[in-house]
Amino acid sequence: MLDVNFIRENSKKVEAGAHNKGFDIDVDRILKLDKQHRELLQAVEGLRARKNQISSEIPKLNESERGAKLKEAEQIKIELKEKEDDLNKISSELNILLLSIPNIPFDDVPVGKDESGNKVLRLEGKITESKFASKDYMELASQHDLIDIERASKLSGTRFGYLKNEAVQLEFALVNFAMDVLKKEGFKPMVPPVMIKPEYMAKLGYLGEGWEDDIYHLEKDNLTLVGTSEQTLVPMFADEILQEEDLPLRFVGFSSCFRREAGSYGKDTKGILRVHQFDKVEMVSFVHPDKSREEHKFLLSMQEKLMKALEIPYQVVHICTGDTGFPMAEKFDIESWVPGEKKYRETHSTSNATDFQARRLNTRFKTKDNKLEFVHILNGTAFAIGRTLIALMENHQTENGGIKIPKALHKYVGFKKIG
Questions:
Q1: What domains are there in the chain, each with its CATH number?
Q2: Residue 331 near residue 230, CB atoms below 8 Å
Q3: Which amino acids are annotated as binding site, given as ranges?
Q4: Which residues form a coiled coil (predicted)?
Q5: Residue 341's closest CA among 139, 121, 149?
Q6: Distance CA 144, CA 123 (A)
Q7: Annotated binding-site positions for ATP
Q8: pTM of the model
């Protein structure tokens, strides 16, 4: 949610920012309702004050004076009820409209309608042309008995898979490696819940704008399954007040995640690239507003540190306005080179929600001079396990179909090669 004061002072910027994200909003209607809301609120507060004043005066009056005051009090009561009803009605409509406004992108975010407008910032790592025909990860998995799609499909349907043998060890190697690296940077390890109440998902900005089609909802229990660990890490401090001296607060969470993959019919139906259930290591930061853009660069640097340690070529992409998502002001992706497809594939994203989610969650901090402000909240992928395994297997394959293990993971798996 945007600060209504910001909307008043920057109405054209808000309208343009929303439009660049693909949302058409009625700023004029919002400003009109906001004016009516302020006027009604002032009137209601005045009537309440007058009502309280009369209540304090009545015991001191004689009988005739008391009668006149009681009559006035009754009239104020009627008027107050009418004004309060009008105020509630306008408040409700205004709140709905405010909740429909996306976070406004920063001025230097590339403007574009969809992923075609994203901007590649830089390439990292060397893509080497192999002297042998590369196998894709499912061929390698079949050769070494690492992934079983057929049996998972038999039990659970499409877009599920079993990880097996060394692939399981590699998953937990990635988790432990990420945790070790990030703990040194002040991130607190977490295993968050994988179910969340829908009202908190809405406050995060993931319901009401089409995202609900991609979310699993357990109607009997009125809970939803998370699509990423951040969805139960970010609301931890809802309706709480943090202390400025404790910022930044950084967390790294590991959990299973669940997505319907709505709208992806026919895309990546084989293998483990686009599945309904996957594991993920996710970073979340709560920071001072003055530090959020700096923190965003820091989260991106942590992602790059992890990727460089795995010796996987990648590119860093600045995501355009139409692809940043409803709650985010800025987003970067890391896309890893996948030799089997001869293309880059997204494996990481990191986003800055500024104070947008904090306002909806009422997560604030007390400054050193005892003022209350909303924190800025950011998130970033450490490892999306399935996609990282794909990039790792394909980039480190050998001529005979073996898979070399990056040195950074040796101590976690106890072997240097598969096959």
A1: 4-99 (1.10.287.40), 115-418 (3.30.930.10)
A2: no
A3: 228-230, 259-261, 275-278, 282, 346-349, 379, 381
A4: 30-93
A5: 139
A6: 31
A7: 259-261, 275-278, 346-349
A8: 0.90
